[in-house]
Amino acid sequence: MKFKKLFIGSLLFIAFTATLSAQQYNTGVGLRLGYDNGITLKHFYRPSSAIEGILSASPRYFQLTGLYEYQKPVPGAPGLDWYLGIGAHVGNIYHDRDRYDSSFLVGGDLIAGLEYVFPTAPFTISLDWKPSFNFVDFNDYWYAGLALSVRYTFNK
């Protein structure tokens, strides 16, 4: 009886931890819609560790952002993950319409969000908050970096 409980408990533990650490896709590419619209590429190099690149552009600026993200499942919500991350960006912003006055951007970024991986389709959707801080030339911060991303996933 004791062996049976230990065996069943061990199986449940293995099944639960395998679910928590299982990666649902390797790479995703798509669109990021929010204050800084752009193209996003996210790649997992470990089950809970990803790198994300975001190329944002508008008539006034362009920016390239690189992020490290730590991602884990939300308990009791299949397909839903939470993630936190940190990174940096470089870019350029124009202060006038004629593009005579511009600033070079270098700064840091934080990110926190939720991502849902569709079980039967090769897509993810995520909602995140990405505040950023500029350190060079254009010293400023931006707290309102809320965005929705939709990605097509590979190697699911």
Keywords:
single chain, 156 residues, mainly beta, Porin, eight-stranded antiparallel β-barrel, 1 helix, elongated
What would your notes on this structure say?
The protein is mainly beta. It is 13% helix and 58% strand. The chain is built from 1 helix and 10 strands, in the order αββββββββββ. An 8-stranded antiparallel barrel has the order 1-2-3-4-5-6-7-10. A hairpin with a 7-residue loop joins strand 5 and strand 6 (102-117). The chain starts with a helix and ends with a strand. The model is unreliable at 9-22 (pLDDT under 50).
Q: Order of strands in the sheet with the most strands?
A: 1-2-3-4-5-6-7-10
CATH structural fold name: Porin
From the coordinates shown, what is the CATH architecture?
A: Beta Barrel
Report the count of strand segments.
10
- Work out the helicity level: 10-25%
The biggest beta sheet reads:
8 strands, antiparallel, barrel
Structural class: mainly beta
Number of domains: 1
Low-confidence stretches: 9-22
Order of helices and strands: HEEEEEEEEEE
Mind telling me the C-alpha Rg? 19 Å
Strand content: over 45%
Terminal Cα span = 40 Å
CATH class: Mainly Beta
- How would you sum up the global shape? elongated
Give the helix tally.
1
The whole-number mean of residue pLDDT values reads 85
What layout of secondary structure does this protein have?
Blueprint: H1 2-21, E1 27-34, E2 38-46, E3 49-57, E4 61-73, E5 80-94, E6 102-117, E7 123-129, E8 132-134, E9 141-142, E10 146-154
Antiparallel strand pairs: 1-2, 1-10, 2-3, 3-4, 4-5, 5-6, 6-7, 6-8, 7-10, 8-9
